[in-house]
Amino acid sequence: MADKEMVRFAIDGQEVEAEKGTMLLPVALEYGFEIPHLCYHEAVSPYGACRLCLVEVTKRGRTRLTTSCNYPVDEGIDVTTDSEDIQRARRMILELLLARAPHSERIKKLAYEAGIKETRFSLMDVGDCILCGLCERVCREVVGADAISFISRGDKRDVGPPFADPIACIACGACVYICPTDCIKMEERGDERTIVKWNRTLKMQECKSCGKPFAPLFQLNWIIDKVNLPKDFYDLCPVCRAGR
Q: 180 and 222 share a domain?
């Protein structure tokens, strides 16, 4: 195996080192630099949707604003994380995000930290979704269910099950846990789990030992078929399985 090619560059005057081609944001976070972000998660590919992770990168004498989550590091670049231009751009982005997700505690906190108490833009009735694409990416890249996709274009752009039919959703809840604005809700009542945003309700498997429902039967059968597990592999819940 060939040795990894490492590059040296500077972030806010501090020399750092990373593998060539690694995206800038995770490197900066690893070195302790605070860069706000919403659409980035280490489990999925970068997308650059929220634009909050803007930084200034100087390369060969030219400086430009760029999203750090999808900018590959290179030898000798000079990165600034908190200039006046960056702060001005982030404040504008946060005002736009507040208009899309006025009830999101995370966005309100980021806005407050940037000195923003309210947005000048008209509030949008989009259910606090900022189109970050995290739910779509985790469903496609990690879970492998491909139950969510982007829909339409322009100001009609949305995210949800293709043709508004959630038949492929296994109600695993990955989209719920990864959503940065908490706009995807999950409810469990009795032996049913519902992913509210997709209008998907599935029966839960009951543990054959303790009798408690613990996961959607459809999800468990999907996993069993996908990795060729024994049909009775999920007869017990994780707690009872651990106590065997």
A: yes
Secondary structure letter of residue 40 according to DSSP: -
Examine the domain organization and report whether 102 and 160 are in the same domain. Answer: no
Residue 162 sits in the same domain as residue 238: yes
DSSP 90-110: HHHHHHHHHHH-TT-HHHHHH
The three-state DSSP-derived secondary structure of 50-73 is CCCCEEEEEECCEEEEEECCCCEC
Low-confidence ranges of the chain (pLDDT < 50): 1
Interatomic CA distance for residues 147 and 11, integer angstroms: 39
Task: Answer yes or no: do 78 and 159 share one domain.
Answer: no
One domain for residues 163 and 194: yes
Q: pTM of the predicted model, to two decimals? A: 0.92
